[in-house]
Design goal:
Layout lengths: L5 H4 L11 H6 L8 H10 L1 H6 L4 H6 L3 H7 L3 H19 L11 E4 L15 H16 L3 E6 L5 E6 L5 E6 L9 E2 L9 E3 L8 E9 L2 E7 L7 H4 L10 H22 L5 E5 L6 H13 L3 H11 E4 L10 E2 L1 H14 L4 H6 L11 E2 H8 L2 E4 L2 H10 L6 E2 L2 E2 L3 E2 L6 H4 L2 H11 L21 H30 L3 H6 L9 E6 L15 H8 L6 E6 L7 H15 L7 E4 L4 H10 L2 E4 L11 H7 L3 E4 L5 H4 L5 E3 L7 H21 L8 H17 L2 H30 L1
Parallel strand pairs: 1-2, 1-9, 2-8, 9-10, 10-13, 13-16, 17-18, 17-20, 18-19, 20-21, 21-22
Antiparallel strand pairs: 3-4, 5-7, 6-7, 7-8, 11-12, 14-15
Helix pairs in contact: 3-7, 10-11, 11-12, 19-23
The structure holds pyridoxal-5'-phosphate.
Length: 716
């Protein structure tokens, strides 16, 4: 019914027919997790590839017809083009590989981290959602995604010479991003009206192809809306509470509407965090209308067929809307559900704080019998803090189950490592990636070879950081001391610790700066020097986070550390990829139990970067005594934790790193890398995570629905 022929939407120059498939490849993010896909664009024109920020649409648009014609005569390019295009075709048309088929899933999330050319994410939650779509595509799981287009969404970080974080919003250029307009039958941009919400809001719909999965994005920045409403989707997690409520109404209720109007079939609703939870209301309304269910029956069915994932260990971190605000928007809506105001509000009231308003997490927990936290530890914490909300059935209190997060391996492996895996295991390695036995092959990689791969990544990272500072220096003439604080003196030959994550107080980014005298001795040791690279944005409204960053930036300028502390500006997907692979040790020291899971340590470990972490989030499940290090007291104690960290560095980590053989290879260290890579890659892959979602939720729900259907059939 809906037309989304890319040729109507995207003004790429006319591609010669010999390479016409480039358009299809460009408009599907599949290439982002296939090294040869990426390489194809680089081969096309490596300069423009870099200039475009690795955005194939922008790049193709900037090429002249002559250039494109010339490429068709380049035999080696054409060979590679045919290979990649054929692989892509095979991937897209391949039938499902997952045998025990679930019913289709609609996945809702406020953000998606897919690639830096589509800046609709802010952090961990988004990357998780992005990895879930990619993995579902790889596994052939029937899934459709719903999210938001943020026209001014992406916040860039600039650190001033005083160490204070400034930010600037980067508008997304819709016509050069790898996104497409969804068109209606008349060829106009398909637009929905968010039903029964006062005042009326409209949203137009875009789509992104993530392999075989489609992600639909709602965009309120259209002429049909009042200026105020155009802003609804303008930025991620707006601090304006009224705007935030409207945003979540559009995402949940509007998102549900998109699926209805596009006629997309799905049976299971998966809500990633509370932001899109209003979709549950629309689902109730839909069951009543379409299946003729009573209100109670519809609510029961919603509970049975919906999954709610919570990501925070803090009650205070959930969205709560006061009753007046809720009434203004939903006055007509609860009538449509045959509810009165009290019944409607009760679904979101936190018994611990009943006057606060409508709580999105309480609502999600109430309306979904399938509830999960994102690590074992988080499941215990979440069950505890929400125990007053969880229902008791047959005398048994419900728990919040866990599905520990995982990461999409093909996305997060460095290219050189991917290539080595393909050489060792063949192109099909990713089909069996969660088989622990498979990873025994790691032993067969020569220590020297693995060491070289990791050290090459370190060189690439240092070059990348220095080049950025050089450009900044050339452009702004920054003080050389600032250039030092930003990393020009980094040394690609020494032990490098990375700390890259959001600059939030609970993550304790400056823990390692607790005892500067002790740190100085560790960093400046003449034979066994160490350097630390920090990166991360503070939330624009988080003054404490900004102060912590400033504190670190001061230390980075301090001559006593000899330029061995660096702060890298504007942490995001691209910087993350360099750091995750380039540093030797990935430091994680949140206050326990504040990190629900954390995923960057997984991405580091699978690249052979060793995880040095307190036992929080996923680490108690991941750590086996040999594949990284665990330190820190429980409950957390700043002084004790800092001392434990220095002890480990002095006594174990630094000596192990510098214990090299006559070829310069630290064999003990490399063995540890292999242990990390072979134990963490399968267990914390998105493949294992999706299999858990299938086993715990998607398959049981599908079976129940099939049974219900069969029983109904019999009754007739
Ligand atoms: C994986 C990832 C995150 C989330 O990592 P945490 O361990 O939760 O901090 C954040 N930002 C980027 C760019 C990532 O790739």
């Amino acid at each position: 019914m809906m037309n989304s022929d890319p040729s109507v939407n995207v003004a790429i120059p006319k591609l010669p027919k010999e390479i016409s498939g480039l358009k299809e490849i460009s408009l599907n993010l599949w290439w982002t997790w296939n090294p040869r896909g990426k390489n194809l664009f680089k081969l096309l024109n490596s300069y423009l590839w870099k200039e475009s920020g690795h955005n194939p649409i922008a790049m193709l648009k900037s090429m002249t017809q002559n250039e494109l014609d010339r490429v068709c005569k380049d035999e080696s390019f054409m060979r590679e083009y045919h290979y990649v295009y054929d692989m892509f075709q095979m991937y897209i048309s391949d039938s499902n590989i997952y045998a025990d088929e679930p019913l289709p899933v609609a996945y809702f999330c406020a953000e998606y981290g897919l690639h830096h050319s589509v800046p609709i994410y802010s952090g961990g939650l988004g990357f998780l959602a992005g990895d879930i779509l990619k993995e579902s595509s790889d596994m052939g799981l029937p899934m459709v995604g719903i999210g938001f287009m943020y026209p001014q969404g992406y916040v860039r970080q600039f650190i001033g010479s005083d160490g204070w974080q400034n930010s600037a919003e980067e508008p997304i250029e819709k016509d050069v991003a790898p996104i497409e307009r969804v068109l209606d039958d008349d060829g106009n941009h398909f637009t929905i009206e968010v039903p029964f919400i006062e005042p009326t809001v409209y949203a137009s719909v875009w789509k992104i192809n993530v392999g075989r999965v489609t992600l639909y994005l709602l965009d309120t920045d259209i002429e049909k809306n009042d200026p105020w409403d155009r802003q609804i989707s303008s930025r991620l997690y707006t601090p304006d509470i009224n705007q935030r409520l409207r945003q979540q109404i559009v995402l949940g209720i509007g998102g549900y509407r998109v699926l209805e109007e596009l006629g997309i079939e799905y049976s299971i609703l998966h809500l990633n965090e509370g932001h899109p939870a209003f979709a549950l209301f629309e689902r109730v309304r839909n069951f009543m209308e379409k299946e003729n269910l009573s209100l109670d029956e519809a609510i029961e069915k919603v509970k049975q067929t919906s999954v709610f994932t919570t990501h925070t260990p803090l009650q205070a971190a959930t969205d709560v809307y006061n009753f007046d605000m809720m009434s203004t928007s939903f006055r007509d809506y609860w009538e449509k559900l045959g509810m009165n105001k009290e019944q409607f509000m009760r679904l979101g009231i936190n018994p611990d704080d009943p006057n606060a308003g409508f709580n999105m997490t309480v609502f999600g927990l109430n309306m979904c019998n399938n509830r999960n936290a994102v690590s074992k530890k988080h499941s215990e914490v979440a069950t505890e803090i929400w125990q007053h909300v969880l229902p008791v059935t047959n005398g048994k209190k419900a728990v919040i189950d866990h599905v520990t997060n995982g990461v999409h391996l093909p996305t997060w492996f460095g290219d050189e490592l991917s290539t080595a895996l393909i050489t060792l295991l063949g192109e099909q390695w990713s089909f069996i990636q969660d088989d622990t036995a498979l990873w025994g092959f790691m032993k067969e990689i020569k220590n020297k070879k693995l060491w070289n791969i990791s050290q090459n990544s370190k060189v690439a990272m240092v070059n990348f950081i220095r080049e950025r500072v050089r450009i900044k220096y050339a452009r702004e003439g920054i003080d050389p001391v600032i250039a030092i604080a930003e990393g020009v003196l980094l040394d690609p030959d020494i032990l490098t610790i990375g700390f890259a994550r959001r600059m939030a107080e609970y993550k304790r980014p400056d823990l390692i700066l607790e005892d500067l005298d002790r740190l100085e001795k560790i960093l400046n040791n003449r034979d066994r020097p160490v350097q630390i690279i920090f990166a991360g944005k503070a939330h624009p409204a988080d003054m404490t986070g900004k102060k912590i960053l400033q504190h670190i930036f001061k230390a980075a300028q301090d001559v006593r550390f000899h330029g061995r502390i660096a702060v890298v500006e504007d942490y995001g997907e691209n910087v993350a990829k360099y750091l995750l692979r380039g540093v030797d040790v990935w430091l994680n020291n949140p206050q326990i139990p504040m990190e629900a899971c954390g995923t960057s340590g997984m991405k580091a470990s699978l690249n052979g970067t060793l995880h040095l972490s307190v036992p929080d989030g996923w680490w108690p499940e991941g750590y086996n005594g040999k594949n990284g290090w665990s330190f820190g007291a429980e409950p957390s104690d700043r002084t004790k934790d800092a001392n434990a960290l220095y002890d480990l560095l002095e006594n174990e980590i630094v000596p192990l790193y510098y214990d090299v053989d006559d070829k310069g290879v630290p064999n003990g260290w490399v063995e540890k890398m292999k242990e990390a890579m072979s134990t963490i890659s399968p267990e914390f892959s998105a493949r294992r995570m999706m299999k858990d979602y299938l086993r715990k939720f998607y398959i049981p729900i599908s079976k129940e629905l099939q049974n219900d259907k069969n029983n109904k059939g019999k009754k007739k």
